[in-house]
Amino acid sequence: MSATRHTKVLIIGSGPAGYTAGVYASRAMLEPILIQGIEPGGQLTTTTEVENWPGDSEVQGPDLMVRMEAHARAMGCEIIGDIVTNLDLSKRPFTAQTDSGTVYTADAVILCTGARAKWLGLPSEEKFKGFGVSACATCDGFFYRGMEIVVVGGGNTAVEEALFLTNFASKVTLIHRRDELRAEKILINRLEKNPKIETLWFHEIEEVYGTDAPLGVEGVKVKHTKTGEITDIACKGVFIAIGHAPASELVKDQLALHSGGYVSVEAGSTRTAIAGVFAAGDLTDHTYRQAVTSAGMGCMAALDAEKFIAEQE
After folding, report:
1. What residues make up the domain containing 233?
2. Model confidence, pTM
3. The pLDDT value given to residue 58
4. Euclidean distance between CA atoms 124 and 136, whole angstroms
5. Is 136 a catalytic residue?
6. Category of 211 on φ-ψ map: left (φ > 0), alpha (ψ -120 to 50) or beta
7. Inter-residue contact 239 to 137 (CB < 8 Å)
8. Catalytic residue at 299?
9. Pairwise CA distance, residues 181 & 269, whole Å
10. Phi and psi for 164 in degrees, rounded to 5?
11. What are 48-98's pLDDT values in tens digits?
């Protein structure tokens, strides 16, 4: 028989938003339970050096998340290594079923399940993730000063990343499988006027290659989508910019979503359309997607939950 546990606040997800919500909810004496999910620590555990976290000129992504987890625990947040497989928001208390079989009921739920970058799905791409292959120009562009790099994609994200990366790189090659970009006109105009950017039409990446010791990218092999011809492009960095997928599967039929699956919240708050359900971090944010903004929203969600619970009592 499955065990059932009740908590005032159930936090689902364990990136900067989740752990910060855990810190604030604990300090409010709400005795929160946090379920870490499939990727404890979130996207930062797949990065190496982080240089834009306030207070640390440089910190390893996994180390930062270990510290945030330890902070939440020290404040009194109970952190559980499990995965929520089903969430019922139709009535209070809300009910979450987990992979382990334990069922959690909660007066309030804070959703911090994040978003995952879309990848090409190549074995060689997986091999060099964090060692030359990235999905975040603002996180990693700084490391490619004076180097030649490649950006893959054709939408706003790809064009914005290519433009941003010209602040560091000597040359940016934008690779797109078609001959027309889906980005906004104003972005395309900026791209076309930038002398550092070259666009390679009708091509897609076949393979990322590089060195094994130390692990590092040396270039990519690209295939022409019409002729099949293979071309070699030397580069030190490969940025995959084909979009992000918010991890909103648990609530896709229960909460309002926008921009391809991001959870909608009230402006200036973390309140969703269901009273007592709050959302924070990359799950709601298709604009900034930074660790520091996610942490800020985690704080907001805990304060919003505290106020909600106080009003109920």
Report:
1. 119-240
2. 0.76
3. 87
4. 18
5. yes
6. beta
7. yes
8. no
9. 34
10. -60, -40
11. 678 789 999 988 888 999 999 999 999 999 999 999 999 999 999 999 999
Residues 132 and 104 in one domain: no
Q: Are 89 and 254 in contact (CB under 8 A)?
A: yes
Q: Could you say which of 213, 240, 267 is where a domain stops?
A: 240
Instruction: Tell how strand 262-263 and strand 78-80 pair up.
Output: unpaired
User: Do residues 45 and 128 both lie within one domain?
Assistant: no
Say which of 136, 282, 285, 304 is annotated catalytic.
136
CATH number assigned to the domain comprising residue 152? 3.50.50.60
Q: Of 212, 240, 268, which closes a domain? A: 240
Mean pLDDT of all residues belonging to the chain: 94
* 131-140 residue pLDDT tens: 999 988 878 8
| Residue 2: both structure tokens together | 């499955």
Q: Is the pLDDT of residue 1 over 60?
A: no
The single residue of 112, 139, 235, 285 carrying the catalytic annotation is 139
Task: Give catalytic status of residue 304 as yes or no.
Answer: no
106 near 10, Cβ under 8 Å?
A: yes
**Given the residues 82, 107, 140, 304, the one annotated as active site:** 140
